[in-house]
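My current task is to audit a protein record that another person submitted. Thanks in advance; the entry in question is below:
***
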Amino acid sequence: MKVLIACEESQEVCKAFRAKGHEAYSCDVIPCSGGHPEWHLQCDATQLLKISWDMIIAFPPCTYLSNAGACRLYPQKGVLNQSRYEKGLAAKDFFLQFYNAKCPRIAVENPVSSRIYKMPPHTQEIQPFQYGHPYTKKTRLWLKGLPPLVPTEVVQPIGPYIPSGTGRKDKSKYGIANSAKIRSKTFSGIAQAMAEQWGNIKEDESDDSDERGI
């Protein structure tokens, strides 16, 4: 299959699909860090939606959509931060371009969103500890033409992947996601599950790869 991994610079998912024999491409506005620039398209991923793909897996930025930043929407009780709210609306529009793309198989990933943005109903919620990583980090998947991911290796979580609060002294109890770039990377166990479970779906016989770009 021809697979677009949108908003991915780590190439974790791209490499997992390549290992399964698929023609996968990562895409981001910044260079890749996964070691395979020949599989990376450095551009605005929405421009690639004009091309026909067999599957699109997207990881749009969540900074302004995530419920984790909801407190910044109301820095003063009852007073909406209009600038941040509008940035969230722009982020939702970006998200929806992937969710509503013309493609038979779509997966869009994001954390729990602030209710104010009224995101479409998600398909499922997954956790790293269901795929071999001993942390909690609730992630939502919006799926079209794809089955929900099945846990592959459930382990006991030792704590949250993203540090929270000021009293957490024992650093062994949480992950290392103390920067936005690290937080955005997909866990390898989840990437492998996507490639193994979704990569086994057969292409429609009517697909004509000769008429596609790239």
